[in-house]
Amino acid sequence: MKKEYVILTDVRNMHVTSDPLDIYEAFTLLEKENITLLETRGKGSCRVQLFDKKGQCLLEQALEFPLEEDIEDALTALFLDKKRTKSMSKTKLQAPDMGLETTIVHKVPKVKQPKEKKERRVRKKRPLRFRITKKQLLIVSGLFLLLLISSMLVGAFIGNQTPAKEVTYEQLLQEKKYKQLLQVFPESEGKLVKRLYEQKDAEGLQEVESASKTSLASFYHAFLTKDWPKVTSQRNIPLNEETQAMRGFAYLQEDKLEEALLINQELKSDRLEKAIQEAQLKQAYDWLRKGNVAEAKQLNQVLKQEGLAKDIVTAQSVLNLIAKFEKDSKNNALTAAERKEASQNATLWRENLKRIGE
After folding, report:
1. 0.70 exceeded by the pTM?
2. In whole angstroms, what is the distance from residue 223 CA to residue 229 CA?
3. What is the pLDDT of residues 211-223, one digit of tens each?
């Protein structure tokens, strides 16, 4: 990578990637997981490793989550402290290898000496001079610049970041920043999805679907676009009266009346019940147009539709006429013209039967 990056290892009970991340992505991911653990009262842990662009590990730290303080402030302070400490430690350890000549002054305790008549001579210690080569100077300068640039980048990151919670739900909603809204207010996903569905915003539902960990937005998008097989087969969605009623309605559109009846047997949704009755009424008229009067009459014992009852009687009379004309068309006692006319009348009344209830 062309800049410093972070790798998260030794992960426990956290949904994070092991791929290299830049600092901003790592902080955002850890912040999201920290919020999740705080809300669910769970616990997790991971090891945070910071690498330079050459792949050398600058520092690492094992962390226990959740953290009560702001995750960005905590990690930034930790990174700065450890980098300064590590940089100072490296400098101290590398000094002997650079061939530097250093002057070490030891404090010598006073020792009583026997008195002498002659004046004692005091030797003066000559300080050793430092000798630094150009190569060693470049190495020290490089380490210093690396520490300085890293500190400036982290400082700029902290200064330019606006706390996510300072952005309001309504502001993000009006600006249609649905992905950011889910990151800042993940608990509002259901509310957002229903609003987009009521506004018939299919594109908005697709955007939420791409950023969500659940299938709720996918379910509502499928229902809005009348993708009935996807609605009836969708999994990992909240089971409540609204979603079950929507699933029952989708079964009706697939002509699966029995499944819809089973759903509403316990649900007792008024909207679904009305849709079921409309589907049953349609089925009854389909039977009448095919001449299945007995089935339509049996279904109307449940529906108790007065209009359907009258059309059942009408259909029966039409069927009687059709039967009579079909019989006459095969009666050799009649003339050829009479048999032909009877056949034409049978065909005419079969067409009339197909239009019953219109």
Report:
1. no
2. 10
3. 998 899 999 999 9
